[in-house]
Design goal:
The protein is of the alpha/beta class and about 375 residues long. The protein has two domains: about 160 residues, P-loop containing nucleotide triphosphate hydrolases (Rossmann fold), CATH 3.40.50.300; about 110 residues, Helicase, Ruva Protein, domain 3 (Orthogonal Bundle), CATH 1.10.8.80. It is about 50% helix and about 15% strand. The chain contains 15 helices and eleven strands. Strand 8 and strand 9 form a beta hairpin. It starts with 13 loop residues before the first helix and ends in a 5-residue tail after the last helix.
Length: about 375
């Protein structure tokens, strides 16, 4: 098996690593776009994340890797087999890493239905595409800004829906398409249209590290990895295993992470103050904050979770002039959150709000 550069050996780029981990905990967040100059470990981080993720259980002979414990997301074939009384075998597999070429067409991505065979022989035959291979895995798109806009739309739609539905001439076939979507690009080669940019849940702008010590560490790590990949990986195995187990545990905690009405008001006030269009950012911040709380093994989100999520969810959605760079830092966001909390607390009915929050906390599930 090919040794992949360890995720925990990547120097710096903490925002990028955090965005990837949050999507690994909850792929329904909606993917991450990593924008930066060449040679900043964008593709290395995506491959490394897929390599360390825990194994998942799948229906052993299913072409789409359906989750045996989630019948609601099964493909058409698994549903038919189950309805016919057939037992579905189970096996575990590593998280697949699927690299989508820039030249990919719609049929290559979503798959194709053989209409001629269906009409002549009454048999439904579906040839899986990239989305089928990526299910329960990581779908990586390098130079996503050079991919056809229509194909990018299809990828973002299926990632949000969690399903790929193909319909031709009244014939329909569906299969799960739940994957961690990672797109990378160099802004110097052109940007994504604003409509597509907004569809990526999180976005990170990265640059080469400026500190001499960090740059030396990068050189040393890469030289050691090139010299003996196995030995280099062994020095990071314990950290890789620890991170993998933490992500796996966070996935089990995620559904029980609580949030209050006050948290929702804080998110709404923040996005309103930042003049963010639409409501997608609010939902992304909430999902990401819950994933961050689960990653830290907490049963409820706090204001720092919201600020950390906003740092990744807002920069590419904020209004800006052409060629203007929009950046947010955690310190500024934390200050804004403090101000918002003070305003909520000082508003009319503040006491009633606190009481309502308390009731909300009690009614939401908590970590056992």
């Amino acid at each position: 098996m090919t040794i992949v550069y360890p995720f925990t050996a990547i120097v710096g780029q903490e925002r990028m690593k955090r965005a990837l981990i949050l999507n690994a905990i909850n792929p329904r967040i909606g993917g991450v776009l990593i924008r930066g100059e060449r040679g900043t470990a964008k593709s290395t981080a995506a491959r490394a994340l897929a390599a360390l993720l825990p194994e998942v259980n799948v229906v052993a002979d299913c072409r789409f890797g359906c989750d045996p414990n989630d019948s609601g997301s099964w493909c058409t074939e698994c549903k038919e087999r189950h309805s016919n009384g057939e037992s579905l075998p189970v096996r575990s597999r590593r998280t697949p890493f699927i690299d989508l070429p820039v030249s990919a067409t719609e049929d290559r991505v979503v798959g194709t239905l053989d209409i001629e065979k269906a009409i002549k022989e009454g048999e439904r035959r579906f040839e899986p595409g990239v989305l089928a291979a990526a299910n329960r895995g990581l779908l990586y798109i390098d130079e996503v800004n050079l991919l056809d806009d229509h194909v990018v739309d299809l990828l973002l739609d299926s990632a949000a829906l969690g399903m790929n539905i193909v319909e031709r001439e009244g014939i329909s076939f569906s299969h799960p398409a739940r994957y961690i979507l990672v797109g990378t690009m160099n802004p110097e080669e052109g940007d994504l249209r604003p409509q597509l940019l907004d569809r990526f849940a999180l976005s990170v702008d990265i640059r080469g590290l400026r500190g001499a010590r960090e740059r030396v560490q990068i050189m040393q790590n890469n030289l050691e990895f090139e010299k003996d990949p196995d030995a280099f990986y062994e020095t990071h195995r314990s950290l890789e295993n620890e991170l993998s187990q933490t992500i796996e545990h966070a996935r089990t905690l995620l559904k029980d992470v609580a949030f209050s009405q006050r948290d929702l008001l804080s998110i709404a006030a923040l996005t309103s103050q930042m003049e963010v269009d639409g409501h997608r950012a609010d939902l992304v911040i909430l999902k990401s904050a819950r994933a961050n709380a689960a990653f830290e093994a907490r049963s409820a989100i706090n204001q720092l979770d919201i600020a950390l999520a906003a740092e990744l969810a807002l920069p590419h959605r904020m209004r800006r002039s052409p060629f203007e760079e929009t950046t947010l830092n955690l310190e500024d966001l934390t200050e804004k959150m403090d101000q918002i909390q003070a305003e909520i607390g000082a508003g009319q009915g503040g006491d009633e709000q606190d009481e309502g929050e308390s009731q909300e906390k009690k009614s939401l599930p908590s970590k056992s």
